[in-house]
Amino acid sequence: MAEVGRPLAGREQELAVLRGRIRDGARLLTLTGPPGPVKTGLLREALRCEGVEALWEPAELLTPENLPSLARLLRRRLAAPGAPRVLVLDGWERLGHRGAALVAGLLREAPAFAPGLTVLVTSLRALRLGEEAVLAVSPHPTDLGGRRVPGEGPAQDAGHGGDHDLVPGNAVGAGTGAGTGAGTGGAAGTGTDIALALALHDGTAPGTGAAPGTAPGTGSGTAPGTAPAPAPGTGTAPGTAPAPAPGFATAPEDAPSPLQLAAAESGYAQCDPLERLLWERLSVFEGAFGREAVREVCSSGALPADIVLDVLDRLVPQALLPVDDGDPGEDRYWMPAPMRAVGARRLTERGDRWAVVLHHRRWYVKVARRAADWWQGGRQLDARALALLELPDLAAAMDPTTAPLSPTAEADAAVDIAVSLWFLWVACGRVTEGRARLRHALALHPGPAPARALWLAAYLELEAGHPEDADPLLVQSWAAAVREGDDKCLAMLAHLRGSTALYQGRTDAAAAEFRDALDGLREYPDLGPTRQLCWTALALALVRTDPEAAQEALDRADVHSWAGRDVWADAWVQYARAELHYWYGEAGRATEMATRALREHLRLGCVTGATAAAELLAQMRILRGRPTTAAHLLGAVDLLRSSAFDDGYRPARYCSPARERSESALRAHLSEGELRRAYEEGARRGLHKLVTEP
Description:
Layout: H1 12-24, E1 28-32, H2 38-50, E2 55-58, H3 67-79, E3 86-90, H4 96-113, E4 118-123, E5 132-136, H5 154-159, H6 176-183, H7 192-202, H8 258-269, H9 273-282, E6 289-290, H10 291-298, H11 305-319, E7 321-323, E8 332-334, H12 337-350, H13 353-376, H14 380-389, H15 391-397, H16 411-420, H17 422-426, H18 431-443, H19 451-463, H20 467-484, H21 487-503, H22 507-520, H23 531-542, H24 547-557, H25 567-583, H26 587-604, H27 607-623, H28 627-644, H29 656-669, H30 672-685, H31 687-690
Parallel strand pairs: 1-4, 1-5, 2-3, 3-4
Antiparallel strand pairs: 6-8, 7-8
Helix pairs in contact: 1-2, 1-30, 3-4, 6-8, 7-8, 7-11, 8-12, 9-11, 9-12, 10-11, 10-13, 13-14, 13-15, 13-16, 16-18, 18-19, 19-20, 19-21, 20-21, 21-22, 21-23, 22-23, 23-24, 23-25, 24-25, 25-26, 25-27, 26-27, 27-28, 27-29, 28-29, 28-30
């Protein structure tokens, strides 16, 4: 690696990670972090080291009104012969939702004018787009031993007046000056200026951490090869970092410094009694929150619902930062860590913490159920977006130990949230996280576990590649469903038994179970698989033994008789049709269907579906005499699986023969060295980029 200059000293590890992300070929990568030149410098150095040419577009002189003409200009420049295939958008937080919309439009239309386009963004916060991978840049450089580099950090970065410093010139600086001014009684700035300064100095401003996303490498906030973002909990001791969810490691974070806490205490002292009370109650939120959440969680007693939002409007300039991670026109806010620490301590001293935490949990039970209703009602992409947006607080509400009464007293609510979010864990590629959270909630649940929770536990074991662990849970869930009289759960279990049999290669047993599921499923299910998904699963069980019956099942699957469109089932329908066309020797149609399936599964974040479609597409490319591009796909599949699942994961039996045939055919065309290099190239580029290639 080339020697890193002084502005990037101590950031060798971040540079190495960034270079790896660029090699992985994520379609959209956003560098987030505090103001200053570091993000831009890291990006320039990474592109230089990789020998990649890029088209740069800084946001310094742009306004949202300029964006339509800018979009047209970028399309022309990127479509020109010999144009770079990397676009850098620098300082993009200045442009808000319209800037994010421009990026989304470019990515959507790029296959037509710039195939293989990679968009790299620097911003204070993530853009919250479906295909976005996020790399958080630490505010504090470290030497190779992990210690902070003296004289480096956000104070120095902000002092450069760098690429996108949002701190006003007359506001408190985003560094030592913020703490010093408040600590000595000097008012270098007040209100939101202090909140922003403390957030940036602490490195915890909205968007400086990994944005919640879908499975690694599948258009998520986590790039291929990285671990899922830790999930914070509520109810932690004031001034300390939240405890991680079971099975997740949390990167060490500095607690707010005494100077930061002094600045926050100074702001708290300037508030009136009602503002202080709301400040304290807002400290239970882990992520950003909207006005409806404030009314539901914080209104009680001295803060009735009819005045709480008026108090919020007065408090925003004192302690909160507006954020734009929600829908356009929606007001959302975030409380910096020093402000939260002060509020949490005062809330505990007041003796109200347990009550507010319970209100918080009740509200996020409603949010989880709303997301589940959207999923079942055909708004599946909206449901996914809502769950990811609210995931920090949903995760906190899923931890029953945050209520200081009895953990078991709140285990029902924790299990309820985990089950409502079944689609996020199963269909959107967050299997590992879902397993850990559900296990934690069930471990604290008093008495027999609910049938639907056991169904989900079995489903997650199957999706994680452990059908042997799913079998005993299936038995327990069946007994619980019979005890509870839950006929819908019995139908869901029939579908899951069929999926397990299909995974194990027992196609006749799978077909019988899927037929039983169809007999029991209602037209408009409130949870779990739809009838369309069951018909598709039946087709997959029959496609290699009875193609005519499989075609009939797919025809039934294409009838949208439920409330809305099942995007997840549609993606599997495309995959099943690709399998059927392959069986009939129609390679062109099979390629078209497999490509559609791969794109849809990537859009949702479904690792299982994406890898199955990619492996089938690899077979098509071998048939067309393109062994190298087929090997690229298989290399990307291997990386995706290894980044999403543990070492014990094994693909389904119905996928294994296809992979074995492909590898055998590739060895007949490529030497071991050529095959290894092709796999490595595919892993470097990633499925998002490979799917755009013809």
